[in-house]
Design goal:
By secondary structure, the protein is an alpha/beta fold. It is 38% helix and 18% strand. It has 8 helices and 5 strands; from the N terminus they run E-E-E-H-H-H-E-H-E-H-H-H-H. It has helices at 55-61, 65-68, 74-85, 98-111, 124-131, 142-148, 159-177, 185-189; strands spanning 7-15, 26-35, 38-46, 92-95, 120-123. It has a 5-stranded mixed β-sheet, sandwiched between helices. Helix 5 (124-131) runs parallel beside helix 7 (159-177) and helix 6 (142-148) packs across helix 7 (159-177). The longest helix is centred in the last third of the chain and has 19 residues, at 159-177. It starts with 6 loop residues before the first strand and ends in a 9-residue tail after the last helix.
Amino acid sequence: MHLSEATFVVVDLETSGAAPSTGAGITEIGAVKVRGGVVIGEFETFVNPGVQISEFITQLTGITDQMLSNAPTIAQVFPSFIEFLGPESENVLVAHNAPFDVGFLKAAAAHLDYPWPNHHVTDTARLARYVLTKDDVINCKLATLAEFFGATTSPTHRALDDARATVDVLHGIIERLGSFGITTLPQFKKVKKRLVSG
């Protein structure tokens, strides 16, 4: 399958802390489904994490306890989110610094006794290190890459904005992968870090 025919689901989470192991929970989910460079669906919801939001997190994200007080719980949100992800055999799950987001989602699935789907997971931070050099960007933070690739949405530490910015970064990366001869989904799934960075 050519990359232009593949369906990517780009996910971003906001959370109440750094890791599920510390008792932190998901506070917002944003996801954008794209195929052939076209957005075919979006998913956005606040999530009541069942814990108080620290001042640090509120300053970072703008999300307050008040905003989450009437939000659904992860148990209420999770089934519709999994449905949005679509078939694991076809759709690719994408996130910037994917281990963070996927870690929270897997922890939520385990907590809910919900089977976690086995989507191929792509990390745009890792992919960016494959196609870009230090001459291109000073780091692979989302804001840096969004600016470099001319993203139409700037990252704001809000889930849907950051997911939209990541979509533009993904498209910029896919364009560059073409120059490495990577144009199909099976090739894309095998991309590892370059051995030599110029």
